[in-house]
Amino acid sequence: MTKFARNQWYVAAYGREVGRELLGRTVLNEPIAFYRTETDDTGAGGQVVALADRCVHRRFPLSASRLDGDRVVCGYHGFTYDTTGTCVYVPGQKRIPRTARVSSYPVVEQDSFIWVWIGDPALADATTIPRAPHLADSGKWTTVGGMEPIDGDYGLLVDNLMDLSHETYLHGGYIGTPEVAETPMTTEVDEGAGVVRVSRHMNDADCPPFYARSTGIEGRITRWQDIEYHAPCLYLLHSRIAPKGVLPNPDGSDPNAFHVEITYAITPSTDSHVYDFWAVSRDFGLGDEEMSAFLHDFNREVVMQDVNALNLLQKTLDTEPAGYQELSINIDTGGLAARRILARLAAEGGQPAAAPAAPPVPAAR
Ligand code: FES
Ligand SMILES: [Fe+2]
User: Fold this and answer.
1) Which residues of 52-87 are buried (b: 16+ CB within 10 A; e: fewer)?
2) Which of 51, 53, 60 to mutate to test the pocket of ligand 1 (most atoms within 8 A of CB)?
3) Residue pLDDT, tens place only, 283-320
């Protein structure tokens, strides 16, 4: 099992998923209930709150409860919590026990994602969250996306995304062509920053249906795939497609190419489940709803090919005897670097932090 790195930010949801209905998600084995505070006439409020999803009384899930203004009223006996997780009402008595509170988690809404911090709250620094600004820049990019849960160790998804040569075999007829598996790639590792970059530049490749139908390019293409993985959670694939031989200008401008930013957020849910958030952002056909529908549905099929493969792989791994020795080759260089970084991050912040002393952690920032 791939160990969890606790002192890190993780994507728990898209911002659009969190509103005035409670949403339950489990991140790093911790069940969390999310909601958004009320907005007033001036537009103030609307912050995302993340509370432990277990009532302190008899453990009823708060995500199955209801909101009363900005407070959560437990759906079982009515214990009521404010945005910091402090209980402000218990039924049948005036005195509220001092220990009547649930943990609250630091939360940041950025680049269309809700990021949550699971580890020691004192170490939660919002400036360290890796950026994916294209997701929230609708003037320059049109984005489609979704989230699919996978019944597997999150390390399997990291492996999958770090080596795109699998596109040729698992996604043939969708995004894979022979050139992806045949073209060598380069790998750069910034151990300190926890970033792995894997690049594969194909200068004379088949145009797979995903790009042929969205860009309208006919014939051979120049296809670049530049991966940037910010361990543990954020994965960016900068994809550049152009007619064969068309390169960026010397000044870096690139008006004759099509650019697609493919974003994944890899969020371990439990030891054997992972949330696979995916998004496809394009800088062409902006606002074209038919193209958006095509890219959404087509990419979801691709994602489901991975989901089904990883579900099967996990089942297979679960039945094998311990101590099996994997065989790695060149294509695994990026994945192995990612595993090394994840192991280090887990070792640095692997233990659950001690419960924070009062005052409680701010619920939203
Ligand atoms: S379980 Fe929540 S009030 Fe009893
Ligand atoms: Fe894939």
Assistant:
1) bbbbbbeebbbbebebeebebbbbeeebbbbbbbbb
2) 60
3) 999 999 999 999 999 999 999 999 999 999 999 999 99
